[in-house]
UniProtKB/TrEMBL annotation:
Enzyme Commission code: 2.8.2.-
Domain called Sulfotransferase: residue spans: 38-283
Entry protein name: Sulfotransferase
Pfam families the UniProt entry points to: Sulfotransfer_1
tRNA processing listed as a keyword: no
Primary location class: cytoplasm
Species of origin: Scophthalmus maximus
Lineage of the species this protein comes from: Eukaryota, Metazoa, Chordata, Craniata, Vertebrata
Swiss-Prot/TrEMBL GO biological process terms: catecholamine metabolic process; xenobiotic metabolic process
Length: 291
């Protein structure tokens, strides 16, 4: 094994899988899955707002009635809208009734080819400096990920793409380049922070759903950071301590834009900007770094 490689990650067809969480054979069969018109995939690089989008989709399905989703102590967002790449979830997807709502961190080349003909994709992108900080803290909470030595060490790992999700730059660029090959809504975490009602409205229209203004207002209300932080299903509190060490921190941590400023040194920021400029030159998306 390469010395710089995290021991918990298994390189697989241009991606990295988490040992014990992903089964390479299962992942290989995702590409050939049959897709229904009503299927929706939320695609994210880790720590970009996956759980937030799960919450919004669950609430849109429930027409804003949070109690209709289920008793708060009994479900988790990830249980209701699972990761397609996690072991055993592919077969469950095949057998699930419509609408099949799923999330994924996979690269485009591993996802069902049929998405170019049917189904919908919502890609959520977040500025990578905040992603790095959020991911650093998450590595301390998530038992399946290597505990970082220190911030500096994790910073370099992230820039090298030596983390689950691989390179943030490749993830965003590749998915964005396929934006017009499929029915995709490309939205940013920062847009959602700046104007959640408008983001929820766009998602609702994209999914072809019809909700009243009151129902939409309820979707917004139950997907704010403060309300989600108080909800066990959105904090993975119903998920076993084997996966997440809740004593190390909460899943819903800060939910802000610009927290990187509290973590990056001046030198780290310069180094990040250098890599960013090289990687993202000519990329047609303006990211928001601070609000
Ligand atoms: P922070 O660690 O910066 O707080 P993911 O679900 O992809 O793992 O992303 C988790 C990140 O999204 C965490 O970021 C979490 O706090 C943030 N998040 C989740 N729901 C949010 C909300 N309603 N508003 C703002 N941020 C939210």
């Amino acid at each position: 094994m390469d010395e710089t490689q995290s021991p918990a990650l298994l390189p697989h067809r241009g991606f990295k899988l988490i040992v014990g969480i992903h089964d390479p054979d299962d992942v290989d069969q995702i590409r050939d899955l049959e897709i229904r018109e009503s299927d929706v995939f939320v695609v994210t690089y880790p720590k970009s707002g996956t759980i937030w989008m799960q919450q919004i989709l669950l609430l849109l399905e429930a027409k804003g009635d949070v109690t209709a989703i289920g008793p708060p102590g009994k479900y988790s967002n990830a249980g209701l809208i699972p990761w397609i790449e996690v072991s055993g979830k592919r077969q469950a997807f095949i057998e699930a009734p419509s609408p099949r709502l799923r999330v994924t961190h996979l690269h485009h080349q591993l996802m069902p080819a049929a998405l170019s003909e049917r189904g919908k994709v919502i890609y959520v992108a977040r500025n990578p400096k905040d992603v790095l900080v959020s991911y650093f803290h998450f590595h301390k909470v998530a038992n399946m990920l290597e505990t970082p030595k220190d911030f500096d060490d994790f910073f370099e790992k992230f820039l090298r793409g030596d983390v689950f999700g691989c390179s943030w730059f490749d993830h965003v660029k590749t998915w964005h380049s396929h934006k017009d090959d499929m029915d995709m809504l490309f939205i940013t975490y920062e847009e959602m922070i700046q104007d959640l009602p408008s983001a929820v409205g766009r998602i609702c229209v994209f999914l072809g759903k019809e909700l009243t203004d009151e129902q939409l207002a309820n979707v917004v209300k139950h997907s704010t950071f403060d309300n989600m932080k108080a909800m066990p299903p959105a904090n993975y509190e119903n998920v076993s301590g084997e996966l997440l060490n809740h004593h190390q921190g909460r899943f819903m941590r800060k939910g802000t834009v610009g927290d990187w400023k509290n973590h990056f040194t001046v030198a780290q920021n310069e180094r990040f900007d250098e890599v960013f400029d090289k990687e993202m030159k000519d990329f047609p998306l303006t990211l928001i770094w601070d609000i």
